[in-house]
Amino acid sequence: MSAMLSVERLTRRYGPGCDRCLASTGPAHGTNSCPHCGTVVACADVSFDVEDGEVLGIVGESGSGKSTVAACLAFDQPPTSGQAFLEGFDGDMLSADAAARRRLRNTRIGIVYQTPQQGLALDVTTGGNVGERLLAADWRHVGRIRARASDLLERTEIPIARIDEEPRAFSGGMRQRVQLAKALASRPSLLILDEPTTGLDVSVQARILDLIQGIQREAGVAMVVISHDLGVIRLLTERTLVMKLGRVVEEGLTDQVLEDPQDAYTQLLVNSAL
Amino acid sequence: MNVRTLLDTPVPEPGPAYNYAFLDEGTKREIRRAVLKAVAIPGHQVPFGSREMPLGRGWGTGGLQLSLSLLGEGECFKAIDQGADDSVNAVNMRRLVAAMTDAEPVTDTRAATLVQSRHRIPEERLRPDQTLVLQVPAPEPLSWIEPRYAQTQRMHAERDYSPMWLYLYESIARHGEIAVGANYPVIVDGHYLMSPTPIPRWDVPKLDRAPFLTLLGAGREKRIYAVPPHTSVVPLEFEDYRFQVERFAQPCARCGATDAYLDEVLDPRSGETVCFTCSDTAHCELRRTEAQR
Amino acid sequence: MPHLDVRALSKTFTMHLLGGTTLTAFADVSFTVPRGRFLAIVGRSGSGKSSLLRCLYRRYLPSTGAIRYATAGGTVDLLSAPDREVLRLRRSEIGYVSQFLQAIPRVPSRDIVAAPLLRAGAEPAQARAAADEMLERLGMSAALRGTFPATMSGGERQRVNVARALCAAPRLLLLDEPTSALDPETRRLALAAILALKRDGATAVGIFHDREAVEALADDVLVLEDGAVSWHGPVADYATTALEA
């Protein structure tokens, strides 16, 4: 099986950048800020691939650069360097032209953000939020759009009667489920979940995680789950990358990374959680 | 002084203080160049340096600048406001044009070579030798959903109109229909989303593959755009929520027309509908004259 | 060719949080398991037997040595095999039963047991039927099969755990005290189910608390003492030695 997504040496810097940025930052230097030019190296040389039906975890503390990886893959941020290849798309998707990127974003890539405001228009109806991706994919039949949105809302346990309500009136957990429904609307090849349950009550978290698992079992998408929560990573993923200060410090089978971590930072992470 | 006597008042000779057609030659050239560009890129808004005119911005200065740049000897100029030739604004436009150019002011649509209009397209089918100039209050159709100029530019460039489709979807979800009366968004030549100006939906099909040239001028917003002859103009519609023109329950109370856009006449005291009459007064007049004959 | 060929395997933990202190779980362990044979690993707690088993599953990353595992497509070194290869083998032919059930919460038992079959590409209805059958063989009532393990007793939960590993009919079964939490009757059922798998040709490496299980299942025994092999031989010889103090 070939990789659905293949990421090669993804790097994102904020600042002017200099020749010494990469050599002067990272876990070995205890900082992601270049001492020579002040540039923040949010992530550097991040490489991985994900197959169809596979779930990859990226774990790390805030500031580790894991969300920057998500933002680059969802085209929310342009990378400074590096490439990403999505099966069926010719060439590096990160350097594709704006229209092609938008098309990929609307049809092949779904993302669920930690904060629903990032992924949803709170003043647009729930059906409209879910349907937006379908409209972008040139669906021009309101009845069919609503039927698909209803299916997805049912799947994500939102009462269909609320299809014409604005998510502004919804609880945090419901909003996350609407985000999921929206992300799934165009049957994406790649689903990125950036801290999908952070900030939610434990019981609400559980339902979302159940839902994500069900989706993974049924839809067979390639998923990248980004979380600082090792429980989420253990539950959802089979392979995991550990990031610290913008670099991948460890990667492996999720159970191995969590039960026999090799890197000092991963050991700290695992021990802090227990 | 009523409208009729105003119209009959002799047009004063332009004084030496004014250039032909009011605008200086450089300005007219700039506007014509903008027109050429607009014709070359149907539906695309071309910026131009809108001048101060002897009428307030928002009162048709864009349309007027277009007309003045184009009118020469042997032209016949018709000005209408919401379909009427005799509204104050239309009358003043016509007077100004008559005073400043060699064009002859007319009210008969068939006689006109250039029709400048606010919010209507004449019922009379325009010919290839006629030009329609529409006055534009707000040229950017995406301003309904996106206030940032850089964003609307990007959306046009990438043909990213899904937010507009979402706007229409939301209208259906909330109101059961596409609640857009006038200024119905259209796609021109398969690319640009365009505001056809606040013409009623009734007039929108008249633009599609029309034999005549339509120029649209926004004086306040400093934009010129165009629909060249034989260019497709397609309203946004869903397969199950089609674009529809207005329907009228009664014929025109004056001329009996059933195939024209009608204005509702209300009793000012009771607020009740008294009757419907043609919005295009010249057309209505013509039908009545023909009926009498 | 043996099904499993372990060569000079060692596992040393480096504990960075304790200033880089190292701890050797076991060192220089070598053994082979022919296809269809059962090897029991015995030893006191702390002797390294659980770590060894986890290394065989790649849940722990061995430090040095080799774990040559024979598949239809050739021999794979489980120590250096890419993560995906290990995942594929786990899905298709290597089963692991831990001492306690680790499962996704809020999934009914039947579905937990059926999950590996589904991942291997089985039809949902067939997978659930097979899961039902295995749970029934382990004595779980039909009513319980539809409930979440979280609501069950430890013994019931462990039945789900055993059933999940056995249901997928693995070619190599790694058993980490699978029957320790079971009541005698269920233990008997579980051992019978494991034996049935053995009859079908499966290979196994297992840690068992009780001597009965060792004698019922194992062909060979390997004794670990302080992380080193102190004895390795047929179960019949093991039974006659005085090692079990």
What spatial form of chain C do the alpha-carbon principal axes imply? globular
Computed over alpha carbons, the radius of gyration of chain C is: 18 Å
Q: How many DSSP H or I helices of chain C?
A: 9
Helix content of chain A: 25-40%
- Rg of chain A, rounded, reads 19 Å
Hey, roughly how much beta strand do the residues of chain A contain? Answer: 15-25%
Main sheet: strand order of chain A: 5-6-7-3-8-9
Strand order of the largest sheet of chain C: 6-7-8-3-9-10
Computed structural class of chain A: alpha/beta
Distance between the termini of chain A: 36 Å
Describe, in plain words, how this protein is organized in 3D.
Chain A has 274 residues and is an alpha/beta fold. In chain A, 37% of the residues lie in helices and 23% in strands. In chain A, a hairpin with a 2-residue loop joins strand 8 (239-244) and strand 9. Chain A is globular and about 55 Å long. In chain B, 29% of the residues lie in helices and 17% in strands. Chain B has 2 domains: 25-235, Rossmann fold (3-Layer(aba) Sandwich), CATH 3.40.50.11310; 247-293, no CATH class. Chain B is globular, with a radius of gyration of 20 Å. In chain B, helix 2 (25-40) packs across helix 3 (61-70). The longest helix of chain B has 16 residues, at 25-40. By secondary structure, chain B is α/β, with parallel strands linked by helices. Chain C is an alpha/beta fold. Chain C has a domain at 102-156. Helices cover 37% and strands 28% of the residues of chain C. Chain C has a 6-stranded mixed sheet, with helices on both faces. A 4-stranded antiparallel sheet of chain C has the order 2-1-4-5, with helices on one face. In chain C, helix 3 crosses helix 4 (124-137). The longest helix of chain C has 16 residues, at 184-199. Chain C is globular.
